[in-house]
Amino acid sequence: MSLSRYSALISAALLAACAATTPQPDGRWKSAGDNEPPIELELKNGRLSVSGGCNRLFGTARVENGVLIVDQLASTMMACDAVSMARDRDLSQLLNSRPTVRQQDGHLLLAGPGKQLELRQQEDLSAAPTRLVYVAAERKPCSGVAPMQCLQVRDSKDAPWQLHYGEIEGFKPEPGIAYRLRIKEVKVARPPADAPSVRWVLDQVLEQKLEQQRVAP
User: Fold this and answer.
1) What are the pLDDT digits (tens) for 189-214?
2) Which of 4, 35, 43, 129 is the most exposed place for a label (fewest CB within 10 A)?
3) Measured between alpha carbons, how far is 21 from 63 in angstroms, rounded to an integer?
């Protein structure tokens, strides 16, 4: 074997080894700035899920040599306001641009041509129990420590609505839209006397449907 051929094989092997050992930023990440709503990104076992505008973006992804490579990026097809749709386009362009990835001290920075996104690492909820719930399109008045507006939730379409005294972390419902969610139930170690012992954290929006408002006769 010639020296040049041998060198080429060694270089290819080293590149493959580097790609294989590149740390993958697996986990849940959330925008570090004052974005409203926040941008949330999850990368796990080569699957990417991102939300922060209107729709959820998803596809296969990996980090090689400090670059995020996303394959077959797809999206849900909800129609929203112009600002939210523009955020979706910006996120899609950034993810498709093969942005560089820098991870340090619980922060993740994605940088592409003219765009960058800084995210903070979120707690690992992979071991927390999962639950499916329906959320009604409208809140109802309720009383906790003080009068407030509670979410209405139920486990199945046939079950009666129940008041949920608290919020679902990471979930910001729009009035008039009904949802089906997958949530994580996280135990609170030492909850205050007037607080629930379980936190609900949004894992995924499975369905969302615009409900027609009923007009009183």
Assistant:
1) 877 766 678 889 988 888 888 886 55
2) 4
3) 10
Q: Are residues 9 and 115 in the same domain?
A: yes
**Is the same domain home to 93 and 175?**
no
Does one domain contain both 101 and 192? no
Pair (88, 145) in one structural domain: no
pTM above 0.70, yes or no: no
The fraction of the chain above a pLDDT of 90, given in percent, is 43
Neighbouring C-beta atoms of residue 65, cutoff 10 Å? 11
CA separation (Å) from 10 to 2, 5, 205? 12, 9, 47
Radius of gyration from C-alpha coordinates of the chain: 22
Beta bridge partners of residue 38, listed in sequence order: none
- Alpha-carbon distance of 155 to 180, in angstroms, equals 9
- Among residues 22, 60, 51, 70, which one has the least CA distance to residue 171? 51
Same domain, 11 and 80: yes
Q: Judge if 107 and 134 occupy the same domain.
A: no
For 20-51, write each residue's pLDDT tens digit. 445 678 888 988 766 577 888 988 889 999 98
Please report how many Cα atoms fall inside a 13 Å half-sphere around the Cα of residue 61, on the Cβ side. 29
Residue 215: both structure tokens together:
């007009």
Alpha helices (H) along 42-81: none
State the Cα–Cα distance between residues 81 and 111, nearest whole angstrom: 26
